[in-house]
Amino acid sequence: MFSNGKILGIAYLLQIIIGVLGNFYLICHYYFHFKIQKSPRRIHLILIQLSFANAMFLLCRGIPMTIYSWGWTFFLNDVVCKIITYLQRVFRGLSICSTSLISIFQAIVISPSSTKWAILKDTLHKTMVPCCILCWMLNLLKDAALLVYINGPRNITKSKWKNKTRYCYMDTYNIDRLKFQYLSAFYDFITVAAMTISTGYMVFVLYQHRQQVQHIHSTKVYSRVSPEIRATKVILLLVSIFFFFNSACAIITIYVDYFKAFSPWQLYVPMFLSMSFQAVSPLVLIRSETWSLWKFCCSIQGINRSCAMSLFIVSHQTHTEPTK
After folding, report:
1. Which of 78, 79, 81, 299 has a 20 to 30 Å separation from 229 between CA atoms?
2. Are the C-beta atoms of 245 and 273 separated by less than 8 Å?
3. Does the domain spanning 4-293 belong to CATH 3.60.40.10?
4. Which parts of the chain span the membrane according to its record (predicted)?
5. Rounded to whole angstroms, what are the CA distances from 299 to 202, 208, 227, 303?
6. CB count, 10 Å around CB of 181?
């Protein structure tokens, strides 16, 4: 008979396996696209960054939670706990920043073909790499204070130690919590606000496109959906999943803090929801890709076959060449 902890541990483990495998497949997939294309799309850089951040967040948060749910309470020392908690915050912020960059990028891509928008599109392509580097720098610096104020599990009865993750503790007397929380909240507000504005603009553009398509269909003229529109719908779905899981996690966390609810689900359910976007998003992106895993493997197999055929032809010509 499995206990609740073991069942939760298995659920966390399945979430980690599915999410990590999906994200690392996307990294290989987009890297291969970026290398073989004559004019690679810069958005693949952001998608690689997003997939890497999601995979690392699942590993840094999911593995400790799986171990803790199986009954191992004191398994991290101070140094490891500081590093694990810091990496969790960094990769979470990097995931939010990358999702925001993708929505902003796609909103500019589908914008009208005017002179001002053309200049902005050209500037965006040139600043894609600096934007990715800026995301890394902001997230590495924003949560640097955690390295000082987070401590490993210990038998503490004093009220100054606040239990955040059940396997790591924060000293609330040695840190001005309001300033630290305001800084994190301000960063999240900026990134989520940019994501919301760009998402609203994409919805507006899609609405206009739908009106045009209805007019074209009324005149019986066939029109195909452009790749940009398909990509926009996928990104809107991705952002919707992000808002759904993070909103549900925030609502449950606020409920627990406000009503002082003490039950097993107050930790496990928000933790599971906080990792759901990172586990589900690669499935959405893989499903939307027209270049599937089967085509990817076939292309690699085709390259190997062509190389083998070339070697066979050269070898055959060498053996059949008449001796002088």
Report:
1. 299
2. yes
3. no
4. 12-32, 44-70, 186-207, 234-255, 267-286
5. 34, 38, 22, 6
6. 11
